[in-house]
Design a protein that fits this description.
The structure is a homodimer. The first copy, chain A, is α/β, with parallel strands linked by helices. In chain A, the strands form 3 sheets. The first copy, chain A, has a 7-stranded mixed beta sheet with strand order 1-2-9-6-5-3-4, with helices on both faces. Chain A has a two-stranded antiparallel sheet with strand order 7-8. The longest helix of chain A has 18 residues. Chains A and B meet through β1, β2, α3, β7 and β8 of A and β1, β2, α3, β7 and β8 of B.
Chain lengths: ~375, ~375
């Protein structure tokens, strides 16, 4: 952190405070992070050394990797406590955050201790929020275990929880100490989790990079068959770096017109109305379909590009024949989006594969046409 | 806000994120902020124009100034809702913050709306914390109505609430949009509130500025008689600018060795053990007595300086003959302080009037001697 100056204007009775804060962190891609042959010069260990650790692991991740994780920290002489988190959208609440803070306080976690979050996006968001308010800020490290975690929640600085029926309504912007991405975690992902990851990959590809889009088109089956190889590594690394590039233009979101909000305008309503039966990533997939159809009908997106997007998403498919909300409900939900984006809709629409743009105009008819079209595809139930 | 660069080191599989965030705000000293003759070119109005406002007023302040405040915002055509807050240490909890967020959400407060906090330190801390997490951050303006508010909570960026029995345990660092200080609010302060203000004035004077100390020594009676004049204005302005100068060296407290923590090492325990009967400012006064006695006995502070401090504090006095905790309890509470200061005690002791220094050594005997001495003064009850 660098700092500050004060200019005193005694004559006006105004004191001006100006500060510059520099924050930096690294996103590491390491295979077999907790494997024995990775113990030497492991950058995670170098960060942890000498600090008390509070490791919070998604309980499902714990079932598969708990022993390995505990052994890693024990064998390397770390002073740690480990807590299993029931990470679900339903539990992504202020109560979970407060329970975590309470547990940390009872275990005498200090201001220079380190929270380590190991899990998917929900785990990273809850633990990050707790760390951001615990003793006004306590360092934290993110170790995402899902594709969504690696390419979305993992790279950025957003932390937060749901509030009432609103997703991620309370939270903050809190840079982690570091992020460690390890593809080894991905091999136990379910088909549903892989799909969610694919839709976030498609999101960033569609607005930023045609070459990533064509990679996904060619190799998405590798991911769906849990075949993690050089190509899937490349896709995930590329998506994460594109997102970082996009986020770091304005990490604290002073500008609320953000390309990365593509796929995230209708999705909160889709998730909420399904009472979180539709997981975040799949809701993003449906949103991409709706937004692309609107773009196509507005003559912003070519027929060929729309067909390509539609066909790719249809091939990836959804975990269930979800029942979707009515066009009118989706339309009404845009009011909440406007509130969150300081009054403007800023709906992101694809112009072509690899580039997006904003519109503030979206009618209930446009949404209805899109919904009719995607429901005719037999992917979803009509409502 | 300025921004960022990404250095990609593909060869190492590390993405480095580096960002510089610039935040700035002004602390205005304005007399009669809400008075009719101040409506033109009022900088508060200029900031508010066009934004929805959520004005949160301490309910005691509302009793005295509510009508004037409401008239000000109505007559100037502001779109606002006003909420009265029962601001007490007991209510400085996460529940109060969540209730406030809930109310703001129901009233469709947007990301570009503005929270305006009008009250003492507790009000500023609660509202600031709510604003810092509402929609991940919503602008807020601070209008302190007490001396402590103006020279302490008002100038800085700390927000927070109590947690369990720990004061200000959860919170954050969130710069306001602006701060407006208006001495007109001070004229209705109680003797207790004035005393609290005086002890915060003495705190900053003792560690930073002998000239402020001598001003206080000479003119503290003006404050105690609610006679707000040029001299009291000068003292308050000076204290606020000293604090700003000290805070802006390290606004986010990366370094936890802070001179401004003088008077704030034993005070949390004093407040807590009295179940908040001892208000914050008076607890700071008692802490200054204890710390100064320890400094004197360590031969760090001269007899003359100690006598001066002791005699000034005795003249100001306390609102009640409080019963103080035992030396052993105060000693035990230092463990919590160490946790909060990343492992080190960093007890601030005055070297002389106007300069302080740190120590990590403080024995139970030293505290006991100090407690014996100050209880012999008949200011407090022995315990």
């Amino acid at each position: 952190m660098k700092f500050s100056e004060i200019k005193k204007k005694h004559q006006n009775n105004i004191l001006n405070i100006k500060q510059t804060v520099e924050a930096s962190y690294s996103v590491h891609f390491i295979k077999g992070l907790f494997k024995k042959n990775n113990h030497n010069e492991n950058p995670l260990l170098m960060l942890c050394k000498g600090n008390k650790l509070i490791i919070v692991v998604d309980e499902n991740v714990y079932k598969k990797f708990g022993r390995e994780i505990e052994q890693f920290f024990s064998m390397n002489g770390c002073n740690f406590i480990l807590h299993k988190l029931n990470a679900s959208e339903k539990n992504k609440t202020i109560s979970s955050v407060i329970r975590l803070c309470d547990m940390a306080k009872k275990n005498r976690i200090q201001r220079n201790s380190i929270f380590i979050a190991i899990g998917g996006g929900i785990t990273l968001d809850i633990v990050g929020f707790a760390a951001s308010i615990f003793r006004r800020r306590t360092p934290y490290i993110k170790i995402p275990t899902t594709i969504v975690g690696i390419i979305d929640a993992g790279v950025g600085v957003k932390v937060g929880i749901n509030f009432g029926k609103s997703k991620n309504f309370l939270g903050g912007y809190y840079p982690p100490l570091a992020v460690f991405n390890d593809q080894s975690f991905l091999k136990t992902l379910t088909a549903k989790e892989i799909r969610c990851g694919l839709y976030e990959l498609i999101k960033i590809a569609l607005i930023k990079d045609p070459s990533l889009y064509y990679l996904i088109e060619r190799y998405y089956r590798d991911l769906m068959e849990n075949d993690f190889n050089k190509r899937t590594e490349e896709m995930i690394f590329l998506a994460a770096s594109l997102l970082i590039k996009e986020l770091t233009v304005d990490l604290l979101e002073s500008n609320l017109q953000r390309l990365v909000d593509f796929g995230h305008t209708f999705s909160p309503c889709l998730e909420m109305k399904s009472e979180n039966e539709i997981p975040h990533g799949e809701a993003v997939g449906i949103d991409i379909l709706i937004s692309s159809h609107i773009a196509f009908k507005k003559n912003l997106l070519s027929q060929a590009d729309f067909d390509s997007i539609f066909s790719l998403i249809k091939s990836i498919g959804f975990s269930k024949k979800y029942s979707l909300p009515k066009a009118k409900q989706l339309y009404s939900s845009l009011d909440d989006i406007r509130c969150h984006r300081a009054g403007s809709l800023n709906l992101v629409l694809p112009n072509r594969i690899g580039a997006g743009n904003f519109t503030n105009y979206c009618s209930v008819e446009e949404i209805k046409h899109a919904m009719d079209f995607i429901c005719d595809s037999e992917m979803f139930q009509r409502n």
